[in-house]
Amino acid sequence: MTAFAIDIVVRASALLAAAALIDLFLRRRTSAAAHHLLWTLAVVALLALPIASSGLPAWLVRIPVARETSPVQLHTGAAPPNAVATHGVAPRAVPVPGTAAPV
């Protein structure tokens, strides 16, 4: 799926969820005509969503990702004297600034 399609699906899901919550809240308090109006407006909004999404602001959702932390950082190949050795963890090569990466 493209980013535009995912954006439309997320917005449409949020719109339908909001309509469903409003409908649930108004279940016994309003007439059937009010429910019909609510769902008609929701469907019209769904039809207008792809056109209106170009003018709507982008949703930026930050997903927290756990970073891999290692007590030993190998910059030049030698560990500092106070480094803690970790068993079972493979060291990663870190390029030194100013050198070309091997091809």
Keywords:
mainly alpha; 103 residues; single chain
How would you sum up this structure in a few lines?
With 103 residues, the chain is mainly α.
Count of DSSP H/I helices: 2
* Sequence of secondary-structure elements: HH
* Low-pLDDT residue spans: none
Please state the overall shape, judged from the principal axes of the Cα atoms: elongated
Overview of this structure, please?
By secondary structure, the protein is an all-alpha fold. The chain has a domain at 3-52. It has two helices and no strands. The chain has helices spanning 3-25, 32-52. The protein is elongated and about 75 Å long. The relative contact order is 0.11.
Which helices and strands appear, and what pairs or packs with what?
Layout: H1 3-25, H2 32-52
Helix pairs in contact: 1-2
